[in-house]
Amino acid sequence: xxxxxxxxxxxxxxxxxxxxxxxxxxxxxxxxxxxxxxxxxxxxxxxxxxxxxxxxxxxxxxxxxxxxxxxxxxxxxxxxxxxxxxxxxxxxxxxxxxx
Length: 99
Hints:
Elements: H1 2-12, E1 18-21, H2 31-37, E2 42-45, H3 51-59, E3 64-67, E4 80-84
Parallel strand pairs: 1-2, 2-4
Antiparallel strand pairs: 3-4
């Protein structure tokens, strides 16, 4: 992450503020703090949420949430906005061949 951000800053003069993890297979509670430390304000997840948790989030219409580190030492200073893609790899369900 550090190398990639350094390269983007050097080549294009930008530092990403939003991340997208397409196929993460889960995160630890520490990841919210790490992503915040990388400078992310938001993160999009495809398959990063356990299927039972995702089912509950779909039912309660809460696929978007503020992710805070487990440690209470940080308060809200390390929270990031997370959006979980509804259909794993794209938000709009894929229906048939588009061509």
